Amino acid sequence: MRIVEVDGRDGAVFERFFRVREEVRQAEQEFPAGLGLEEARLVFAAEHADERSDGFGLVDGDTWLGIAWLDWSLQENTHQVEVELAVDQQFRRQRVGTRLLEEVKERTREDGRTQLSGSALGDPVTGTSAGTAFAEARGFARKHSELHQVLELPLADATIDGLERQVPGYDLVQWRENTPREWLAEFADALTAMTRDVPQGDRGLEITRWTAERLLDREARRIAQGRFCHTTVAVDDGGRLAAYTQMGGNAAAPDRLYQYDTFVRPEHRGRRLGRAVRIPNLRSLQAGLDHPAVLHTWNAPENAAMIAVNDRLDFRPADHRISFQLGL
């Protein structure tokens, strides 16, 4: 068996790497979700200001047994590496996952980092699976859990109409791929506030500090990857951004759509602003939808307000995403 390096520039090697990951995800998830092939290739092909990604496969002859995908943060949380392992079903229980993990540990130490982070899917009720058992057997500790919920689209217009509510004292502003220049600083500040406020469990992560420049870079990357995004924000009487939500997807996988962040500043909570921005944003997303799709979202169980909004929309639970960490 040998290690094959993957960086996104070798098309045939990267496609084989990606297919192993995708096949494992499809076998294990009721609703596979993730990056498309070209979207992932662009992530690997270049180093960005805030992160880089690379990986490798464990190969026997021409057969790919499993892969490791590594995300290296370059601004915050530079003490850790985010890792995803995927082992072909027919090669399970043959120490393939263990071999991959040992190689990951060695690379992490060589880079001077001291912690591995990763996640595994668990049953929507028990939160357990073969993936969680693998992690715990190798010393990873559970640090956080998120409930993965899904909603089949399109919804009937009458359903959306019945949920839409206006909140007095706030105006809604919407945009698509690019944040309007006049909102860059305010939106970057709201993104930073969201990372400070969102439940993180015991992961001890540093706050992601957004700037207008970082936001522009991320939007340019998203567009280059073929991804699209719908944004709706609520603006208070003083002209400050009080709440926002984002939804989107990738044209290469039109049946997979995502509810990204929804955030309400603490001083504006209790007025149903989360719902006030999400329903118009869903209407915007669905306006161009001419085929069935599934909308995915993840929330920490303690984020009861957002889960309540999802329940009103008839999202249903699919699984739990359990976050693990291992000190090196």
UniProtKB/TrEMBL annotation:
Q: Pfam families under this entry? A: Acetyltransf_1
Region: Disordered; residue ranges are 107-127
Recorded GO MF terms: acyltransferase activity, transferring groups other than amino-acyl groups
Q: Which InterPro entries match?
A: Acyl_CoA_acyltransferase, GNAT_dom
Q: Where is the N-acetyltransferase domain?
A: 1-182
Superkingdom field? Bacteria
UniProt cross-references to Gene3D superfamilies, sorted A to Z: 3.40.630.30
This one is known as: N-acetyltransferase domain-containing protein
